[in-house]
Structures are given as C-alpha cells and as structure tokens.
Amino acid sequence: MLELAAVCLLAVTQAMSGEAIAEKIANRIADDERTGQITFTLRDSKGRERERTARLAVRETDEVSRMLLLFDRPANIRDTAFLSFDYVAPEAADETWLFLPSTERVRRIPSTDRSGRFMATELTYGDVKDDFKFGLADYDFEAGGEKNGRLVLIGTSKSPQVARETGYGGFRAEIDPETWFPMLIDFADPEGEPLKTIEVNEVQRVGDSWTAKSFEVVNHKTGRSTSVRVDDSRVARGLSATLFDARDLDRAGSQLP
Fold it and tell me: Which stretches make up the Uncharacterized protein TP-0789 domain (predicted)?
C-alpha cells in the first residue's frame, strides 16, 4: 500500500511546473524551534581529514527562518558565530552575520559574498543560509521529469550577476515528493561547468520540520569534500530571543545549551 501511495503521489506531482516545485521546497513546513550538534569533517584532495563542531539553534516561522551556528572546536575558532535570517517572501532581502572572536566584531555578510566558503568547508555562506531551499528570486525553474521515484528540478541563474553572487550558474536536483527535500543537487559554476554535488544520505523529522541528518559535499574542481552530520536534534521551545540578535552574537556561547 505504501508503494502504491508513493506511485500515486509521484504521478500527481509530475504534472507540476518547475516554479511550483521550487515553491513547495521553499515553503516546507517550518514552525518549530530546535537545537542540535553539527560535525563538519573536511577532507583535502589527498584524503587528509580535520573536524569542526558547532551547536545549532533554529527558529522558523511562516515569514522567516533564523539559524545560529556556534563553533566549539577546534580551539582556534571557538565561539565563532554565524547567524542568518532567510525570509520566505522572495522580495525580502535575507540577512547574514559572522562574529569572529579574534576581532571581537560582528560582520554583516553582503549578498554579493554568498559564494564565499563557509568556515573552510565546501559549503558556501549561501548554502548554509538557504538550508536546502532554492532562492525563488535567483533562478528560473524547469521541471525535469522523474528519476528513481524523485522529481527532477532544474534551475538556471536569472542573470550573470546572480551567478557571480551565488557562485552557481545553475543546478539539477532530485526532490523527494513526500518531504519536498532535495536529496541530490548537482551545481554548475557561472560558466556552466560541473562544480560540486551535495548528496543527502539521511533526513529526519524534528517536530514538524524535515531536516538533513547527514550529507556529503564534493567539489569536482578541487577534489575536496565535506561530510556533515547533525546529532541530538530536538524541539527546543522558548529559546532566548537574544540568541538570534546580531548585536548579541558575542554572548551566544553562554545562552545556547
């Protein structure tokens, strides 16, 4: 019965336009506060590894998703904090900040820097902020049919400027129609050449929100990769409002459990 239900769901969703699929992804249910622990395993082109760990706090509403990452290890980046406000309305300007203990200053990251590498991983600032959603104002979308029981979504950057800002000329993604979660994303660089692949190994439901529990990012140009694992994810209602205030990022370590 479950297989039949999945087939029926796929048959219905295959008739959707690319724009409608992208909107479903952007509007995934997101109404919980949650926390967790994230481990980033960085590998260079020779397979040498190093780890970074961080605490995570998320507060999502129908209007905006707020995400805080606070790094604990290694010692030289302890208390580094990343905060993003990702607005659902495509006309709203998203906001991102970074606190570096070495400078004791909070730096606002402009949208033109979305393509910058996030904490030496193969993720960009934009990847982290978007949290497996695609900017509706950044891409033209096209439905690409079905593969392995998933919907195929193709995105093309709306302009060369957007491609420079995001670092991506476009993407091809495989979407689970039950969760509206991208399970595989192949990104192209601004010139249209293969750049990197993000593959989700496991998703989990925390409250009403679907999130990635583990995923892999492979850079095809450099040979570097980053594995990401999220542990101890839980609903955590009543998080302090100052956790998500850029002016208090220097004190986030004492407020986040």
Answer: 65-251
